[in-house]
Design goal:
Strand order of the largest sheet: 2-7-1-8-9
Distance between the termini: 13 Å
Strand content: 15-25%
Number of helices: 7
CATH class: Alpha Beta
Largest sheet: 5 strands, parallel
Radius of gyration: 17 Å
Helix content: 40-55%
Number of domains: 1
CATH topology: Rossmann fold
Shape: globular
């Protein structure tokens, strides 16, 4: 059986990656979600093992020392990482998987998985990105300033991605993401038939 497709969805903090993926996965079951590990505290309503694997810094560093992550990064003073075993097992079964990671993480994944499909979610404007961070209610003025500064740098990397999606309206964004996934699956299936 041929390997599945790895999709990588990234973009600046607050752009709505989690919201878009949650909406996609409500009724679209042809792609699995890869849960990341993090040392940040859970936000209201987040569940360990569903939204993230919440780890202490010591636990996270132990996994990292054992090469247990595809990618890991220190972002806004917290560690984030994608567990390697789950991703590799899912792809080996021929199932498709999607990662929701920041730009730093996507750079690392690209080295290990150059054939993955990279999708960049962009905000309508930096001002709207700031508004979204405010609505999240989890940012201090200082952390918001850091995230917006990082976003300006991160947006310069859009050209390194296979696809760019403007996240201006949720339904339209999710529809575009579904179209991209379907298009890539069709292309893979065509290649399989030719071989």
């Amino acid at each position: 059986m041929a390997d599945g497709i790895l999709f990588v969805l990234s973009g600046p903090s607050g752009v709505g990656k989690g919201t878009v993926l949650d909406k996609l996965l409500e009724d679209y079951h042809d792609v699995k979600y890869s849960i990341s590990a993090t040392t940040r505290a859970p936000r209201a309503g987040e569940v360990d093992g569903e939204d993230y694997f919440f780890k202490t810094t010591e636990q996270f560093q132990k996994i990292e020392a054992e090469n247990g992550f595809i990618e890991s990064a220190l972002v806004h003073n917290n560690y984030y990482g994608t567990p390697k075993e789950y991703v590799d097992q899912t792809l080996a079964k021929g199932e498709d998987i999607i990662l929701e990671i920041d730009i730093q993480g996507a750079r690392q994944v690209r080295k290990a998985y150059p054939d993955a499909i990279y999708i960049f979610l962009v905000p309508p404007s930096l001002e709207e990105l700031g508004n979204r961070l405010d609505r999240r209610g989890s940012e201090t003025p200082e952390s918001k300033k850091i995230r917006l500064g990082n976003a300006q740098l991160e947006l310069k990397e859009v050209h390194k991605y296979d696809y760019e999606i403007l996240n201006d309206e949720l339904e339209r964004t999710v529809k575009r993401l579904k179209e991209i996934i379907s298009k890539e699956k069709e292309a893979r299936n065509k290649r399989r038939k030719q071989n």
